[in-house]
Batch of 2 targets.
Target 1
Amino acid sequence: MAIARVAEPSGSLQDVKEQGLDREDLFGIYRNMLITRGVEERGHILYRQGKIPGSFYTGRGNEASSVGVATAMGPDDVGTPLQRDMGVHVARGLEPWRIFAQYMGRADGPTRGRDGNVHMADTNLGLIAMVSHLPAMLPVSVGCALAFRIREEKRVAVAWSGEGAMARGDAHEGMNFAGVRGLPVVFICDNNQWAYSTPTHLEYAIEHLADRAQAYGFEGVVVDGTDVLAVYREAKRAIEKAREGGGPTLIECQTLRMEGHAVHDDAYYVPKELFERWAERDPIERFRTWLREQVDMTDDEEADIASYVKKLLNDSLQRAEASPLPDPADLLEGVYASPDDLDTPHHK
Amino acid sequence: MAEKTYLQAISDGIRGEMRRDKRVFVLGEDVGVYGGAFKVTQGFQEEFGAWRVIDMPLSETAIMGGATGAAIMGMRPVAEMQFADFVSCAWDHLVTVAAKQRWRTGTPIPIVLRLPSGGGFSGGPFHSQNPESSFAHIPGLKCVCPATPEDAKGLMIAAIEDPNPVLFFEHKHLYRRIKGEVPDERYVTPIGKARVHAEGEDITLVTWGAMVYTAEEAAKQLPDVSVEIIDLRTVMPWDKQAVLASARKTSKVLVLHEDTRTGGFGGEIAATIAEEAFEDLDAPVRRIAAPDCPVPFAPVLEKAYIPQVDDVVRGLKELSEY
């Protein structure tokens, strides 16, 4: 029996306007989704060209979820996006050339070659770089929310977790504490149905992961993670509720991981029919159709956005390839912070 | 200047910083209403309120992860593990997130993690450990182990000021047993500077924490041997120069610690002396440490485990006769 609320699909333009999105905003969301996918597609090519060391992860199929949530965040809100959430970095304004530089281990990537793939963030954009240990960043987000609560600031932290990592104790401790204290944090569970090769029925025994929210004393919501406007609506509602002192919400965004766990994994264990079924719900294609039908996006407008994204990515790749390699002589720099490092927007 | 216990000095250090800087707050299990399992934060919640002295659920991961997030957002958390042993439950957030974040992404994590450590009271395998070497091995973490009340306050203030995660190993055996003069005013004891506990000419004895007092007792029993006791005060960073200078002066070194022997920090000290002061030595560097087993419960076993005055006397004698 489901306990969490199952969110309605996105509605008409009128509904969306009531949520504060105008035509330009909608085109912006679409553009960010295209950039997100484009960055990862280009990354994949770079990987096959041997230009990306290590492994390579993508969030194909998760563009609506990541961009939808990030669009709902306020400018002073913070978050801890994970390896399927490239759209969060893109929507918060991380320039694609720096993402490519990160992929290639160059000096201009956000971690300057010290960490790889999507283990990155620009804290000036309110994002905190993930670690591999999932969902270790979830309690960290809760800690951000704790700081906001102590200082009585109207800011919200967003904590991401995959459905796989929801099995770990970090998720429990973080959500329990957030519930106890009614902290301004929104938990986003990207449920893409596969934790590497492990399907959901071997990960949890309840119908929806969002059902767990009730056990922590807050609301759980299940939303179609391929429906960007539904994700936006639910994230916005939860974020504003948290901002006003209403405590946490757990939003489960249901998607399918459309590629392997990482580039080396062909995901042979995922039934072909499942891929086919979810391919019909491709988040970008769905939103494009909606824009054509509800907002009368013209051929020219669509082509303009597509060519903007293409040029952006081409230029970004060029700029990233010109970025220098990091200097091994600097390896020990910054193992320990100096007092000057505290001169950040968050520490002022 | 007033005479304070080691415990009062720690408490004073935190309270003073909380009065001075509203970013400083305390979180841990039973730290608020109850004032902490050892009463280090007694009276804090009355003074600073429930949102600056936060009683946490039994969730070491949420304590450490929460402190990390709050620190990134500009706060100065002073987090408490009720016993240092429980830091194993917070390992990921301390070692995986906090220790590496500055180096990976440029984000400083100014946290103090208080770790009541050490044995001597039949706490058994899970309430007695001295895990400082495990963390001294992690790049990005600092490890502080004060022995005196004066240092306990000064190092606490230094730890709170420091822009890094600082593990504050406070030895439980010293809490109420050790008293000393503590300046009333605010002062900082620099992290990374050793203290000469006793000057001497014949043997250098390097130690820290409660073992400083074991060393002192042992030296007293050997009036014919002049022992220089170096209280390291902090094991990461550690005062290499002070140790090497003393080693060059006495030409004989004994390293003493309460942590287990293999992989203990004494090995690092001995290796450094061997690398950098070999020509000045008249004897091999000796170590006295706990044997490589968990901390036992029964008093007779615990006494055999924790280095005793007699063990140190024996070690000093052997070195002086070498």
Note: Chain B touches chain A at residues 25, 27, 51-52, 54, 56-57, 59, 61-62, 64-75, 77, 92-93, 96-97, 100-110, 139-140, 142, 163-164 (CB under 8 Å).
Target 2
Amino acid sequence: MLIRWLLLLWAALVLAAPAQALTQAQARALATGDTASRIAALNELVVGVPDGQAAALIQALADDAVKFTDTAVFVMKDGKGFDPVTGAEVPVPDAAEDVINNNQMRSELDAALALVKLQSPDAKLRLEAVKTLASDPSESKLPLVEKTYAAEQDAQVKEALGNLLFALQLSSPDTAKRLAAAEALGSVGTPATKLLLTERAAVETDPAVRSAIAAAIEQIDGRLAWGERLGVVFTGISLGSILLLVALGLAITYGLMGVINMAHGELMMIGAYATYVVQNIFRSYFPGAFDLYVLAAIPVSFLAAALVGAVLERSVIRWLYGRPLETLLATWGISLILMQAVRNLFGAQNVPVENPAWLSGGMAVMSNLTLPYNRIAIIIFAMLVLAGVAALIAYTRLGLFVRGVTQNRKMAACVGVNTARVDTYAFALGSGIAGLAGCALSQVGNVGPDLGQNYIVDSFMVVVLGGVGQLAGTVYAALGLGVLNKLLEGWQGAVLAKIMVLVFIVIFIQKRPQGIFAMKGRSAEA
Amino acid sequence: MQRRFALKLTTAALAASGLLSLPAQAQDTIKVGVLHSLSGTMAISESVLKDTVLMMIADQNAKGGLLGKKLEAVVVDPASNWPLFAEKARQLLTQDKVAVTFGCWTSVSRKSVLPVYEELNGLLFYPVQYEGEELSKNVFYTGAAPNQQAIPAVEYLMSKEGGGAKRWVLLGTDYVYPRTTNKILRAFLKSKGVKDEDIVETYTPFGHSDYQTIVADIKKFSAGGKTAVVSTINGDSNVPFYKELGNAGLKAKDVPVVAFSVGEEELRGVDTKPLVGHLAAWNYFMSIKSPANTEFIKKWTDYAKANNVPGHKDKPLTNDPMEATYIGFNMWVQAVKKAGTTDVDKVIAAMGGQTFPAPSGITSKMDEKNHHLWKSVFIGEIRADGQFNVVWKTPGPVKAQPWSPFIPENKGKKDEPVVQAKK
């Protein structure tokens, strides 16, 4: 947004100076006709530096804010039409059609805008412009880039421009220049450079340049390999943190309490739908604070799922303690009821949950490694939830009661613990954590009535593998499975990776039925 | 004892005669079977097709019915359960004696009902794009064959205008449609001089939601040359994929993704921001401007509002399979009128060469021989509002090739159903 303002400001400044004027014919050629002729018109316009009106029209085209009829072109702003040449407001006929850009046109427009930006007084804008140009280098830009390079003062921008220059010179007819470019590019090390070098290698005839290109590619590959390795570790941890979140609630309801809760996935779904509802409330009532809706959704999804969990426990599950088969069937039935209830309330379609701006995009750590913000946030969130649950179980009175009741129910009752109430609280806690998992899942995947079905098997796998009744086991199992899955996926593809992980778990449980961590003491035999 | 037995016998006889007399009454209507999943994973896509057929039936009845009789819908729910499709199809044909069935979405469900329709000589209209490699006398395919969707889309991406892609990622969910389509595409790409190392084929399980590794692989692969992704990912798995692409900084203009299963309906439950600029290939888009489309959209909007179709009553959307159902139904009505009967063999004979002004703006024609529609192919770019901008289209309708010439085993197969001799 800021960039656009600066650009407009700059465009206005240039407007005052005499420059090559935009004609109606040029505007029409730019907005209508087939892509090839429009690009030709665009290139004609940017031979010199496009002036204010032309730049404004190009910007409007890139923003999809231009309409046209058989005779005229309109730049649209706030529902009003303006003449691209004179800038005067003109009425837009109903028959006017939107100018449609395809991807090729769009990247040409971006490149043209980058040329405009390259002349900007702001070094940051210039650097950005160089990056845009570098992503799709074309020879026609060479003279302009050379000129700018000579005049550039800022060291950082000058270096980037230098690299861009090398990239452009890679297809120069002068062998010496190509050789120099190939040698220099090896140290740039971005995937875009590699692409450029690979493309050149395919058509290069000079043996010296060929070997220089091969050496440069090798150099780049060495750098990229590190980014790839780190990427695998990160994706593994990210998947592991999601598995941890979905399994943590189950670690309490199944692990500690022994309830085989087939409706666990649906409690996650309720958490995700709670997030959706909070999002809609924020959109209609607090549009200014929309980006913060996720923070508000965290407690809401916890409470919503915990409440449903408490009702379930009080009405159904508490009659079935110690009867695992009946519990399994009853909770499976409940899961179907919950899914259908949500279908009736919200419809069978998935509902849209938007990422707030601060969870969109990613952090470019290396040229080929971008860590998405939503994944980073979920890893941190999973750690916080884990710390919270561990503290709750270890240090609070409720935690003490839960541990007491799971270890020896009768004894706990004898010393005055209201075991029925503790059961309800513990089940509600496990359900609430499932709700939190749902809130997190809404930021990476789809929110629909079937959401929970995709995770129920995974969460049982994690809890059983980790060792029933052990929070620490759940953590190790989740992260271990996440990283293992991603390593296998990189090697054998997603389908086989899933199968191999399942086979691994089956064999592991055969050899060690108690899981990674076994319960010690008397309760293990109970 | 004796008396009781006699009593039972009389009741049984009465019941039998009652049952026998039922079909006689039912002759006053023409029954139309609707075989779409209304529950389970496919309900998202299929339930709206059921409503489309119901809308057409109501519409036809308002015009006075067909051959002087009213149409009557028989709706069954095969619940996204493939074997159940076959059972329900048998029920429609033997118990309800429907004159025609509109149904199925996934290829596996179609494969499941196919033997039933062939055995009992039923008539099925199948409205979804599919992988081809099939031609049955008892089925009319109103969706696209691979050469009416996949191949033009790839040709577009290869063209200068589409970005001039040199390397290809064929990404799909692991089942018959993506596997077969990718087999055809691989053969096609090879015929265009693309080398094997410039093609990767990747599959994911159903419901896959973690695309981090795949996106990282695409990123790495795209460093070797201009890359395009052809996605046959099923339904809602697309959303996490596009989200991951956007977060990893891969833009549509760097690595365009063309999808064959993403339409207006699939984009409904989606935050479209990360998808803008990616492509979809269909034979119809809701945003196409034509008088037939305006009429189609208006009909659907009115119907959805009047009948409280969930989702559509607030935001009516039309899509390609709905259009295919619409065309198929209208052609069946025309064919029945031409034949003067609903007899399956006579209707099949009358179907060939039927034409209908399609909402996509062309005059759609049922091929005289091969049971497929002639279709125009459109490439659309996803817009922020979940609609599509048409950026390219074929010059005219394309004839379907159910037996793809890019699969060597298809050589010599006839472009019309082989009628087997009656036993």
Note: The CA atoms of residues 345 and 400 of chain A lie 39 Å apart.
